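Collaboration report, partner site 2.

Our partner group contributed sequences for two proteins of shared interest, and the home lab folded both. The records are reproduced in the order in which they were received, starting with the first partner submission.
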Amino acid sequence: MSEEMILRLFEALGQTIYMVSVSMVIAALIGIPLGVLLVTTAKGQILECVAFNRVLAGIVNAVRSVPFIILLVAIIPFTRIIVGTSIGTTAAMVPLTLAAIPFIGRQVENSIKEVPYGLIEAAQSLGATPLQIIRHVLLPEALSSIVSQLTTVIIGLIGASAMAGTIGGGGIGDLAIRYGYQRFRPDIMLATVVILIVVVQLVQFIGNRIAMRLNKK
């Protein structure tokens, strides 16, 4: 493999890290509150609003049911409005973010549901407001599990970012398609697969370590 191709691999890796990092941050800022709302607005919860909860859950389920490759193509007009183009690394972050938000919401919802309801009742008996319960009980108690779930989402985004290469989204996937597949370079295809495996293993290791440190049990 030439020096130029090695440089292209590092450049593609940087694009993938950029795409996944920015998409994950934006999606988490929206998805974590979404997960909290999915739990707290359900029947019998501290912010009970069943009608709102059903509508919100329906929207989340609808977006989650769309395969990423279809979402990628379907929102091209929206992507152009947001970033001015539908091709390139920045453009790929729009569908990546939209795909991750409902997934994070459901994952956070599952994590918060693991918090014993007795802790919520104890906080209520002390006069805590719903916001205080969310900030000082639900999120801290579920934090370790949330980190584990977010690690899973990051790994999913890495795979999705590779898929974004099918429409010129940049990154490892784009390099694998343009050089490994279209130009019949099995060495490049193998290199991209190995890089993705290493990145996923590293993300999983770091996520597990952080989750273990935050685990209060």
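Second partner submission, folded after the first:
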Amino acid sequence: MLASMVGAACLAAAGAQAQQPAPLRIGVLTDMSSLYADVTGAGSVSAVAMAIEDFKAKDATGALKTRPIEVVSADHQNKPDVASAIAREWIDRGGVDVIVDVPNSAVALAVGNVVRDNNKVMLASGPSSSDLTGKSCSPNTIHWTYDTYSLATGTATAVVESGGKTWFTLTADYAFGHAMEQDIKNVVTKAGGQILGGVRTPLNTQDFASFLLQAQGSGAEVIGLINAGGDTINSIKQAVEFGITAGDQRLVATVLYINDVHALGLPVVQGLQFTEPFYWDLNEGTRAWSEKFAERNATRHPSSLQAGAYASVTHYLRAADAIGDSKDGKAVVDKMKEMPTDDPLFGKGTIRVDGRKLHDMYLFEVKKPEESKYPWDYYHMRKVIPAAQVWRPLAEGGCSLVKS
């Protein structure tokens, strides 16, 4: 009798265990080892973990509809084929519902296809190509943080209006650079400026000497650096070493992260203007979150991309919770578009039908060393650029999801 009771109990326990729902799995596909590692990488994994913890803190059950939430991460090595293979493995065998971060636009465009074909979700918080909400838009992708159009509009417009009429561009030779180069040309020309020439540089370039000499020889008033991460750091450092910034020419970084400023130091980059969607010291909400982030990341403060990983996952979890399911990726994305966004890092906003997350952007200027009063106190905020002004008009993107 005892044996049969024990057996029944074991069967009941096994049945209960079998009925436990599979966890919601978030895959952070990022750069752990190359030029974007500082601005995404382990910091993005940390930001996603913070989003899950904050979501659970507001959920009485401590989980998403009784489901646990798990995170996996991998290094895509800035190779679209490697990234696509990881995404397929995660989805086919790992039960991953959503892929987040994906810095490097070529990687994001490739992974976006895998995600769409399998009806999962991609939260593109790391890449910047405006094609992600244009000709390559997808019903399964949300493009958070920024894009090439908004960065070009904010920075190039301000520079041309302040007298920088003639430009020479140094462009990273891949999807992000190509998209940004075109956006810069359009904005500069529209604002009354002129592109005198340009050169394309390999990704992860260590020696910019020949490219910078071409830019210097062009006589352009502005040398536009259309690159990011380690490439931005190396090109600025070498431009200063060559004395380019000591003359009449000025450098303009189309993409600049606080990690780049920290690595270069204020004496090197003081006075540089650029556009960003986030700064840790903007307000009480950004400061409180950034202090928690810094505690987890050896006092390093968050980049805008790491902030974007947190905010996009936060909104995704709310949407998946609202519909009670994460398996139908398109349905979750539709809910994300339907719900207004609200988080302490980007504030209130919306998501358009093309997947573009809308929020204000900011024109910043790097402080002089004597103006910095405490660690990571690096920026003056020169201008708020309203969302209505900085993002590409919906009708101009060429997205197939936009109905005429």
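Feedback sent to the partner group on the second submission included the following. Confidence is low (pLDDT under 50) at residues 1-18. The first strand starts at residue 24 and ends at 30.
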